[in-house]
Design brief:
The structure is a single chain. The protein is of the alpha+beta class and 938 residues long. 16% of the residues lie in helices and 38% in strands. It is built from 13 helices and 47 strands. The strands form nine sheets. The chain has an 18-stranded mixed β-sheet that branches. A seven-stranded mixed β-sheet has the order 4-7-2-1-13-16-15, with no helix packed on it. A four-stranded antiparallel β-sheet has the order 5-6-3-10, with no helix packed on it. The two termini are 53 Å apart.
Amino acid sequence: MKHLRYLFLFFPFFLLAQQETKIIAYLEPGKDLIKIEQTLVITNTSSQSWDRVVLLDWANSFSNVETALANRFAEDFKNRFQFSKEEDRGKTVFQQQTAAADYTVHRLPNQKDVVELLLEEPLIPGSSRTFILNYEVTIPEDDFTDYGKTSTGEYNLKFWYLHPAVFANGDWQYYSHKDLNDFYGAPMDFTISLHIPTNFNAISTIPLQLEAPTNTYNSYLFGGSGYKEADLYIRKEKLQFKRYHTDQLTIISDLKDDNLSDPMKIVVLNKITDYLTEHLGPYPHDQILISNRYYKESPVYGLSSLPDFINPFPDGFSYEVQMLKAMTRKWVESGYLINPRDEFWLQNAITIYTLMKYQENAYPDLKIAGKFSKVWGLRSFNAAKLKFNDQYSLLFLNTARLNLDQALVTPGDSLVKYNQELGIPYKAGVGFMYLDDYLDDASLEKTIQQLYASSLTEPTNTSEFQRVLNSHANESTDWFFEDFITTHVRMDWKIRSVSRDEDSLKVKLKNKSGRMLPVPFYRLKNDSILTKEWIPAFARDTTITLSRKRADRIAINYEQLIPEFSQRDNYRTLKDFPSINRPLRFKFFKDVEDPTKTEVFLIPDLGFNLYDGVSLGARFYNGNLLPKPFRYGINPTYGFNSKKLIGSIGFAYAHPMQDRTERLYEVRYGLSANTYSYEEDLLYRRFSGFLSLSFRPEDLRSNRKQRLNFRNVLVNRERSDLNPVSEPDYNVFAITWSHSDPNFKRFFSYNIGTEISTKFGKLDGSLEWRKLFKDNRQLNFRLFAGTFLYNDTGSDDFFSFALDRPTDYLFDYNYYGRSEDSGLFSQQLIVAEGGFKSQLEPAFANRWITTANASYSIWKYIYAYGDVGLVKNSEASAKFVYDSGVRLNLLQDYFELYFPLYSNKGWEVAQPDYDQKIRFIVTLDINTFVSLFNRRWY
C-alpha cells in the first residue's frame, strides 16, 4: 500500500490552481471515522502579506447544537439534529502539532467550522508555505443534510476535509456552513490517496488516476487541478455510477431513467453539453460527476418529478431536464469564481436564465402540464395552458403576493427558505430574460461568456458583471442595477384611460409601484401582436400617443416578460362596441389566474361538528393559486344532522406595506358572518368586522411578529324553552395586542387585550415561554391574568373567565362540541384563559383570575405538567387551585394528550371514571396543518 502513499508526491500538477493539497485518508467504518494526513501548499497570490491562513472546516459544523448550522436547523424548525445523539453528529479533532511547526492551529470561537493557521512569520506576496495537518473527522448521519452516513452504512461525503478560503478584496472570504449548498473555497490542485475496507468502493468529483485493491484495503488515487470541492461517494455494493462519453467531456452519473437507453442518454447529454459549451464556455475539466444526491440539492420542482406512470412529458424529457438542471448548476459553480452567499442572485440568475433559454430553444411549445394540457376536463384550466418557462414567474410571484419578496441582492443566508430555494433564483432568471428582451441584442450572452472565461482566475461580482455588460450593450442598463435587483417593492402598471379617434390613440399609463423600470406596450389584433415597443421608465403617470394600426386591443406586459404583481388592469379593448373588459367566468377548483377574466371558483365543502353532523356544500370564492389582496368566500352548506342550511360568508382586503423599514408589514380589514348549530336544534349567527395591523422586522428570517387587532363581534343565538340562555344576543368590541417570536429552541409570546360590552368590560393578558436546553429537555411556562373592569351579567358564567374550558362566546375556537359538559367532546382541551387540565371548582371567575401553567420533559415526548392559580368570584374569597399530571406531546399544539394525576380533588388517577378525565388536543383543520409545514418556508 505504501506505493500509493508516496505516489502522490510525484503526481504532476497543472498550473491553473493557486493552492495545492495532498490528502492521505483512511476510512474506519466501525467508528464512522476518517483519519487524515493533509499537506497544504499555500501560495500568497495577493499584494499584501498574510499573518494567517483561513481554512474551512465544515465537517465540524455538526460538533454541537450551538453552531451556525444547528441554529439554522432550529430556525427552520428541524428538530432531528437537536434530538440526535452526540455520536450521530460529526466533528473534527486535530492531533497534537509537532514542536517544529511554525504556526498555530486556532479555531474561531464564534465559528466552530472555521480554522486559522496563525503564522509566526508572515507569508509575503508570491511566496508559498507548506502545512502538514493530522486530524480525525467523525462522519455525521445523513439525516441532517443528506450527506454523511446512510442508513445502509454507506457514505456520501461533502466537506470532509480542510479547504482554504478565498482571499479577495484584501481579506479572507469565509462564512459558516448553514446547509445552503453555498461552499466558497479557493480552487485547488488535489491529490487524494484514499484507503477504505475491501467491501467498499469509491468515486469522487476528483478524477480517478489509479485503483489498487489489496487484502486489507481498496486504495484509490484521485487527482485533478483547479477543483473547488472534492466530494466522495463510498458504496458497499458495486457503484451505480455510469460513464457517458460525449463530444465535449465524460459525464459520470447515477441518475436513472429506465425508459431511456444508454445510447439515447448519450444523445441527450451531447445535446446538453453542446448547448452549455456554446452559451457559457467549455467545462473547465475533462469529466463532470452528477450524483443523485447533488441533483436533489436543487431539484426540478413540479411535474417533471412525477412517476413514470403519470409522467405527462415526452419519453426522456424528465431525465433531460434533471440532467440539464444539475449540469448547468455544476457548470456555473465550476466555471465562475463567485461568492455564492453574497452574490447569491448572480449565480442563480445565470443558472436559471441558461435553463430558460435551453427550454425556449429546444421545447418552445411544451406546456407546463405536458400531455395533460390536451386532456378533456384539464385543458380548460389556465394552468394547463402555461408554457414550461411560465413556472418561474408564477413561483416567484407567490412570495410577492404574500409580501415576502426580498431584494435580489440579499445574501443567501438572509433569505426565507422559499426565497432561497425558489423565489429569488426564479426572479433572477426571469429578470435576465426581461433584460435580454429589452436590450434586444447579444450583449447579455456575451457578458455571461466573457465572465465565464475570466472568472477561472479572478473572482466576479455584481459590479464586474455590470461593467462588462455596459461594455457590450447599446442601451442603458442602469435601471436593472439601480432598481430591479436592489428592492423588493412589487412591480405593477395599469392602463388608466384610452382616448381614441379613427387613426390614433392617446393612452394614459399609471405606474402603481413607482419602480423606475421600462415596460413593454403592445397593440393586438385577435390576440396576435401587431406592434411591441418599450416605454421608458416613468415614476407615476405618463401619456403616449400612437397610431391605431388595425388594433382591437392594447396591453402592457402582454408576453409577461416582467414578473408583475397583477395584470388584471393591463388590457383595454378598442372595439367600437366594446364588450366587458373582463367578462365573468365560473370555474371548478383553484386555477392560475387569467388576468383577462373575472373568475369565480367553486369547490365542494365538507365539514363536521357534533350538532350539525356532517355538512356538505359548496364554496364560492375568488382565490386562485396565487394569493391576492381582496379575497371573498361564500360557503353555503347543509347539515345532515340538524337538517339546516348553515355556512359562512367573508370579505377581506390585505394591504401590504412595501416600506418594511417602518415595520408595519400589512393592514388587513374585512367583514364576516357565519351560522352553525351551537346546541341541538339551536343556531347561532355571528357577524364580525375587523381591522388588523401587522408588524414584522425588516429581516424576514426573524420569526418575530406583532399585531394590533380591532374587531366588533355581534352574536345572535336562537332561544329554546327546553334550553334557555340568559344572554341570547350580545355585542362585544375587542382590542388585542399580540407579540410572538417562535423558534424551535426558544418560544416567546404574549398578548394583552380588552373587551367592552354593555354588561361587562374585561382586561386580560397572557405570556408563554418555552426553552429547549442543551440536554434536549424542554421547559414550557405560561401565565394568564384577567380581571373584570365591570360585570353586570348576574350569576350566569357565560362571559366569565374559565379555569379549564372557555365558553367561547366570541366563537373563536374550533370546538367540536362546544356545549358539551360530559362525554368525549367535553374532554377536548384548548389551552386558553386558565389553561387547567383538570375540571375543578370553581370552574369560572366573575371577578378576576391568575394562573400559571408549566411542563417539563421527562423523556422525549413525555412531560410532567402542573397548573396553579387563584380564582376570585363575587361574594367569595379567592380560592387557590392546582393540578398536575403527565402530558404526551406527540405534536406540540396539534396532537397532545393530558393524563391528570393529582389536584384539589386528590389522586384523580385512583378515582372512578378516570377515562373521562383525560384531555386531548386534536387539530383537524387543514389550514392549520398547512401552516405547520409552511413555517419552514416563510
